[in-house]
Specification:
Blueprint: E1 8-14, E2 17-25, E3 38-39, E4 44-45, E5 51-52, E6 56-57, E7 65-70, E8 73-77, H1 79-83, E9 92-94, E10 97-100, E11 109-117, H2 120-136, E12 138-146, E13 149-158, E14 161-167, H3 177-180, H4 190-202, H5 215-229, E15 251-252, H6 254-262, E16 283-284
Parallel strand pairs: 1-9
Antiparallel strand pairs: 1-2, 2-11, 3-4, 5-6, 7-8, 10-12, 11-14, 12-13, 13-14, 15-16
Amino acid sequence: MPASRPIWKGQLRLSLVSIPVELYSAHKSNAKPSFRQIHEPTGKPIRYEKVVAGVGPVDRDEIMRGFEYEKGDYVLLTDEELDAVKLETKKTLELTQFVGACEIDPIYYDKSYFVVPTDELAEDAFRVIRDALRQTEKVGLGQLALRGKEYLVAIKPTGSGLMLETLHYEDEIRKADPYFSEISSKKAEKDLLDVATALIEKKTAKFDAKVFKDHYQAALRELIGRKLKSKGRKITAKEEEPAGRPSGENVIDLMSALKESLEGGGAKGKTRAKPASSSKSRTKSGSGTRKKAS
């Protein structure tokens, strides 16, 4: 079993079948460097105190949770009152609906967790649900009370286990229309589309997360190492050549840029292509700027 502690224990239920399971976070909390605010003259960390205007710092046991029902007016709730809220989803995750694995828009996905059977006795039923989801290419939906909130969740097979993904509710998602309303619905020209499609096909490969590295985190760790070696002395940032940007007089042919990319061109320092209205037309940088949505 994993060394980390489960963040939830309960029952995974499918109709009359209940399986005791545990939930573990699929993400590492210490994978990236974290910082604290430091008081430079003393080198000591900054601490934050809970204060009330006109009163000053207050003790933790004097703090309650409050819901603002009108401006400046709150209804206060104790931890005991909140814990008394009866939700079956606190201890049971029931799969109430199944959808195609590709039907859920990625914008709804939030966080990932591993679902693990608690013991060998639970494994038989666990494997049945896992393999049934895989065979039908379906995702199970349900709701789960976790950390003071009831989440919409999706369950899907991964490896020899199950993955739980928390989902945003419909009212938590912004509508795309205000952002895309001024983008033309006109189709791309076929000759440009053919070359762009060929370029995509050329660069298509099986997804492998190991191929992609977080360059910022690597540079950050290298900076921290340099700072430690310099014994606290100020480090000057390395100078970089300015990225190549087309000047106002620079003219770019989208078709030529696409073909050059397809043939393996587009070396460093070369000008990047900007969208053109036609394969034969040329677009001057800075022209035809679309008005931003208000």
